[in-house]
Amino acid sequence: MGGVEQLVERLVTAEEGIDVEVVHRVIAVVRRRGEDRVQIDGVDPQLDEMVELLDDAIEISTLVAVHRGRRVPRLEIGRLAKAVGEGEAVREDLIEDGVGDPRGNVVVGRGSCGVCHDGCTVAIRGANTRDRTQRPGPRNVRELQSPQLRTESALGVMDYSTPLEGRVRTVERSDGTKLYTVSLGGDGRTILLAHAYGFSADEWNLVGTALAERGFRVIAFDQRGHGRSTIGADGIGTEQMASDYGAILETYDATDAVLVGHSMGGFLATAFLVERTEGADRVGGLVLMATFAGDINRKNPQNRLQIPLIKSGILVGLLRFGPIATLFARSLTGEGYQAAYADAFIDVFRSHDHRSLVPILEAFDEESRYDRLGEITIPTTIIVGTKDATTPPFHTADLHAGIAGSRLVEIPGKGHLPNWEAPDVIVEEVAQLAG
Q1: What is the rounded average pLDDT for all residues in the chain?
Q2: How far apart are CA 131 and CA 113, in angstroms?
Q3: Sheet arrangement for strand 407-411
Q4: Mean pLDDT, residues 57-83
Q5: Residue 308 DSSP SS3
Q6: In this structure, which of 32, 125, 262, 324 has its CB flanked by the most CB atoms within 10 Å?
Q7: 151-153 and 156-158: which strand pairing?
Q8: Does the pLDDT of residue 431 top 90, yes or no?
Q9: H or E segment to which residue 418 belongs
């Protein structure tokens, strides 16, 4: 087994419940460049782009030693790791004389590289950068208030990790599901905010607060099985989650509400409306943001690789390592990436039990309601970033074509997280539709 394979196995098996055999199948897909290249026949050519991404992620997460200006060949990486220790152990050995970059992605210090068994400089990439007790530099946005982590916009200073604050209320469903909801704002038109997969109501911290300041009555919630919401006896799936929308609107006695759905939130919003789920008549306006109506893997190699990795638990395990977390966050964003996106997103994403969410992940691909979009007749605005690789613009083009009279808004250069990448635009579009 090559050094890279050893490292990947070590990383993912550190997480309880991950199947090592699944890991080896992933390794088999990663066609290496260099001495430890793995050649596999019959790889789907449409996966090439994401194979490259995973390949780079694993390469970034390996240990690299430099001795007298010589980079240790990758075939010697396994020997290096064995000689100087692994993970936090290596960091502890080197931390006394070491220094790190502001995000803790690299630690450099004096130690034995295991090749020459002499003192040399060792750089460790992909160590557990989430552990703030053994890292010389701060990473979290609350620790390091730099221009890179906090930015100015028309909404003021943005702190992406700040929770959405308001009046908390639990909505209980008949199957025992408990939905966490938070409301804020004035007596204006109700705006219901539905978040994306792997997020929580807090993804609306900037948008929700700004809309509330304009006098709208804002309601956000953690989707079933996400954040602080549970999964009841009926389980999880499109039908169950769409019905949660109606239950929340009924609990808050909302009428003529504007429903804003991001990614999964929009997928469920279209199902909620076209299936005429109880409570759908309480919605008078719709904003679909970076979303789709099903068939999410269509023409999308990124999703075809990432979704199986999420379902298997492998990706969640790898996200413990800073460079891989950064790479994943970058895959969701467009131009102008900020480290603060990863700070705010990765911890929340990893906190979920993704195995329990598999049914809704499968629904994204197996279900499609594009042929029924004509049944949506309420005023609708559709928003997409032109660099969105998760739900590319062809999805929103199809949504726009299918919903008569809809308005299509394209945000140049932005990706799948317009709630943080372009919150000013989202606020303006929602407010315009809500009147």
Answers
A1: 73
A2: 23
A3: 167-172, 178-185, 217-221, 190-194, 257-262, 283-289, 380-385, 407-411
A4: 34
A5: helix
A6: 262
A7: antiparallel
A8: yes
A9: helix 418-421
The pTM for the full model equals 0.70
With a CB cutoff of 8 Å and minimum separation 6, the contacts of 161 are: 140, 141, 142, 340, 343, 344
- E-assigned strand segments in 135-256: 151-153, 156-158, 167-172, 178-185, 190-194, 217-221
Q: Where are the domains of the chain?
A: 3-129, 151-434
Residues 6+ positions from 68 with CB-CB distance below 8 Å:
120
Q: What is the mean pLDDT of residues 205-227?
A: 97
Q: Rounded CA gap, 349 and 142, in Å? A: 18
Gap between the Cα atoms of 124 and 202, Å rounded: 33
CA distance 363 to 295: 8
| Radius of gyration from C-alpha coordinates of the chain | 23
Task: Tell me how crowded residue 178 is: count the other CB atoms within 10 A of its CB.
Answer: 15
Beta strands in 251-365 (DSSP E): 257-262, 283-289
45, amino acid identity:
P
User: How far, in whole angstroms, is CA 125 from its chain's centroid?
Assistant: 22
Residue 432's H or E segment, with its range, is helix 423-434
- Cβ atoms of 395 and 292 closer than 8 Å: yes
CATH number of 151-434: 3.40.50.1820
> Helices 238-251 and 264-274: crossing angle, nearest 10°?
80
What lies within 8 Å, CB to CB, of 276 at 6+ separation is none
Express each pLDDT in 352-410 by its tens digit: 999 999 999 999 999 999 999 999 999 999 999 999 999 999 999 999 999 999 999 99
Determine the residue type at 245: Y
Picking from 303, 341, 305, 325, the residue whose alpha carbon sits closest to that of residue 417 is 341
